[in-house]
Amino acid sequence: MIFPRPSQRLFAAAVLALCCIGEAAALDLADLMATLARSTHGAATFKEKKYLAILDAPVESSGELLFVPPARLEKLTLKPSRERLVLDGDVLTVERGRRTHVLALKDYPEVAGMIESIRATLAGDRDALERVYHLSVSGSRARWSLALVPLDARIGRVVARIRIDGAGGDVRTVEILQADGDRSVMTVEKAGAP
To answer: Which residues does 173 contact at the CB level (< 8 Å), separation at least 6?
Structure first.
């Protein structure tokens, strides 16, 4: 009979411990929502690429985001042209140049569904998300992914799925796959992050 050397036993124990830690660190939806709800989101910058079937190259934009819990979300696009979107409660204000449009989200459920996915995720508002989406989470607190699939057929005609990736209480990327195959990927970096 051959007995493993002490160094082999130590290595095997370390591998087993890492496997167990990995399982214990798995994240469930309740943990993720609680972590996001506790996070201080504030200001961030974004870079977004929109991949449209009618174009050969993605449309790129960048700017600033501001989230004031629980219900105010601002997106200020600086490049390629200035545009400001302000979601305050259930009212969306869009400013382009000298024009301002004010929309009640209840009148545009497809738009509301896309916007609410980001705002409710930042707020850690599971109830708001589950009214509109089927949710599934994977990963750990250090690196997680939240998948949202629309429950309502009207929203499903516009949005096939949304995937939000993050770390800890921070959202890092938001990918929206539209029903027509077009998609957008927004990369978010907290203001003041290296």
So the answer is: 163, 164, 165, 166, 185, 186, 187, 188
Q: Is the pLDDT of residue 11 over 90?
A: no
Residue 118 DSSP label: H
**DSSP notation for 129-191:** HHHHEEEEEEEETTEEEEEEEESSHHHHTTEEEEEEEEETTEEEEEEEEETTS-EEEEEEEET
Amino acid at 92: L
Looking from the CA of 188 toward its CB, the CA atoms found within 13 Å total 25
Look up tokens 């896309």; give the residue: 114
Give counts: helices (H), strands (E), the chain: 5, 11
Spatial separation of the C-alpha atoms in residues 163 and 114, rounded to whole Å = 11
Which residue in this structure is represented by tokens 């799925």?
161
**pLDDT, tens digit, for every residue of 87-98?**
999 999 999 999
* Predicted TM-score of the model (pTM): 0.82
